[in-house]
Amino acid sequence: MKKLLLTLTLAAAFYNISAQEITLDKIYSGYYRGKGIAGITSMKNGENYLVIEQGGIAKYSYKTSQKESNLVDGQFESYEFSDDESKILLLKDSQPIYRHSFLGTYDVKDLKSGKVVSLNEGKPVQEPRFSPDATKVAFIVDNNLFYQDLNSGKITQITEQGVKNKILNGLADWVYEEEFGHARLYEWTKNSDAVLFVQLDETEVPEIYIPIYGKMLYPGEMRYKYPKAGEKNSVASAHIYRLEDGKKTKVNLDSFKNYYIPNVIQTTNLDEIVLITSQRTQNASDVLKVNTKTGVVTKLFTESDDKWIDTDNVTLEFLEDNSFLWASERDGFRHLYWYDKDGKLKKQVTKGNWEVTDYYGYNPKSKEIFVQTTEKGSINKVVSKINIENGKSQLISNTEGNNSANFSKNYNYFIETSSTVSKPYTFVLKDGNGKVVKELQNNNDQLQKLKTDNFVEKEFITIPNNAGDQMNAWIIKPKNFDPKKKYPLFMFQYSGPGSQQVSNSWDNGNGIWFEMLAQKGYIVACVDGRGTGFKGAKFKKVTYKNLGKYEIEDQITAAKWFGNKSYIDKTRIGIFGWSFGGYMASLAMTKGADVFKTGIAVAPVTNWRYYDSVYTERFLLTPQENPAGYDENSPTTYANLLKGKFLLIHGTADDNVHFQNSMEFSEALIQNKKQFEFMAYPDKNHGIYGGQTRPQLYQKMTDFILENL
C-alpha cells in the first residue's frame, strides 16, 4: 500500500509539473484551441445578423443579441445572399484547388417559398454568383462560364473555348489567383442583362510538372501553367456577353495598359462595369469604365508610382451616386481618395502618417465611411468612422490591439473582433458609436490554460537599423528571466514586401510554439525590417529592384544589436522563417554566417528566377532587365559562406515555391562541401500539413533547435 501511495504521489507530482508547461502534444491536440464565430453576415434590415452554427444558419437580433431562429437548417461550409435576400446560395461540400479556388456543390434556397434548387444539377462548380435581380446564378465548369435560370432550371453556356491549361473564361489562372488574391474574373451588370468576363489564354505559358508519389507503382504528376519571372504570361482579354441575344463582344483595350486585367467590379450604374488593368511592370494601372451596351471604354484615371503599385491590394468602392473611393500611397501612406463618377478627384479623405488598412462601407445618411487604420501606431489596427465631407473622425473600437468590424447594413451596430498579444480573440457587439452592447464570445478559457502553463507576454521594443529607421520588434523572455545570465536567441521573421509579423495581436499559429521555446531557455524575438508594411511607402519600397538586400541587412543588424545585450549569448543566435522568411533564413545563414549559428528555412525561395512573374517582377522587374537584382540577392550565390547548423525543409508538391528551389540550393551547398540537414515532405504543398505532418515537422524543428542552438 505504501509503495502504491508513493507511486500515485510521484505520478501526481509529474502531472502537475507537465501541466505547467506548454508542449507540442498540447498544441497539436487542440488543447489550446480558441473559439470563434463563423460566417457573420448582416441582413438587409439592419436589425439581424446571421452566423453558421452546428445545426444550420442562425438568425440573431442586434438589439437583444438573442437568437431568433434558424434561417436555414443543415450543415453548410458557407453561404451568400442574393441582393434582395430572397434567396440564399449554400455551399454544401468543397474540394480545394489552389490558395483561393475550389470546386463546390451548391444549393439555392428560396427563403419565401422554401424551394431548393441544386446548382448545375448537383455537380461541382466554381465561383457561383447571383445576378442582381436574383433570378439567375452564373458559375464556371471546366474553364467555361454558364448561368442557370432559377425559375426554369435551364442552364445556358456562355463560353465554349475553355480548356485546361489553355483557355480560362471568367476564372483566374494560377498566378492571377495567387498574386492578385482572387479566383473570379467576371461580373454581372447591375440590371442583370449582361456579364463581363476576362478570358486568359495561357497556351504559351510554360508548364510545370510536379511528381505525385502517393502509393502508386509509378508516380503520377500534377501539371499546370506557371509563368516564372521573365517568361510568357497568359494573354488577357475582356468580353461582354448579353443575355438577350447571346452575343459576345470583345472589349477593345488596345489604347490602355492592358497586360494584366486583375479586377472586374460592378458599379451602381445599370450598364457599366469597371476594369482595373495594369502594365507588366505594375507601376501604372488604368481604371476603366466599360459600357456593356455599346462596348465603349472610358478611362477614369491612371494610378502610377515610381516603384510599384500593390495590384494585389485594390480598394475601389462605389457610393450610391457612382462616385467612388480609391486607395493610394501617392502621399507616402495608404489613404483614401474620393473621385466623382467621371474620374475627377474631389478630395483626399484620409491623411496622416498612418495607413488605411481596410474599408467597411459608407453610410449615405450620415455621410460617414467606416475604416480600419493604423492611426494608433503601426502595430495596432483600430476602427473609425470618418465624415467624407468635413473629415471629422471618431474612433469606435478599442484604442490598441488588432480590431476589425462587421457592420449592420444601417451602421447602427457592429461586431468587433479584437485581440492583443496578451488577450486572445473576443467578439463584442457594439452600437454605431462604439458603446458595448454585449460580449458575444471570449477566449478566457484558452488564456487561462496558457497562464496555468506559464505563458509569458511578448514585449514590444524598437531597434535602430543602419539607415536610421526604428524597426518594430517583439521579444519573449523565459518566465524566470535573469538579466545576469546569458541566453541563446532564436529569431523569427517573414520580411516580405508589405508584410507584418510585429503586431499587437494574438498569435494562434507559431506564437504558442515560441512560448514553448522560451520555456526551454531561449529568448525568442521577431523584427520587422525594411520592406515590411504599415510604416509608409518609403520604408516598404526601399527594397525595389533589390529584393532581399536591405531585408537581410536589417536582420543581421538586429541580431548584432541583440548580441550586444548583456543577457544574450551572441555565439548562440538562430533564425527561422517560412516561404519569404525561409529565403531570409537562407540568406542569414550565408551572408550572415558570422552572426547566425543556427538556421531553419522552410519552403524557401532560393532564386527569384524560379518564382512567379507577377510577384517577382513587381519588386525586381524581369531577370532580363535586372539580372544583378536577382543574382546578388540569392542565397545560392553565397552557398560557400555557410558555417553554422542549417536545416532545409520543403514539401515535394509545393505548387507555389517549387521544390526546385531547395534542390538547387542543396546542390550548391553540396558542391561547396557544406554539411546541412534536409527534410523533404512527400506530396505536401507550401503549407506542409495533413495527418501527423505538422506535429512531426515541429518536433523535428524543436529537436534541431535544442541540439544546435
Automatic annotation (TrEMBL):
Residues covered by the Dipeptidylpeptidase IV N-terminal domain: 82-425
GO molecular function terms attached to this record: dipeptidyl-peptidase activity; serine-type endopeptidase activity
Signal peptide: 1-19
Annotated GO biological process: proteolysis
Organism of this sequence: Chryseobacterium aquaticum
PROSITE patterns xref list: PRO_ENDOPEP_SER
Top-level lineage group: Bacteria
Peptidase S9 prolyl oligopeptidase catalytic domain span: 515-709
Keywords: Glycoprotein, Hydrolase, Protease, Signal
Protein name as catalogued: S9 family peptidase
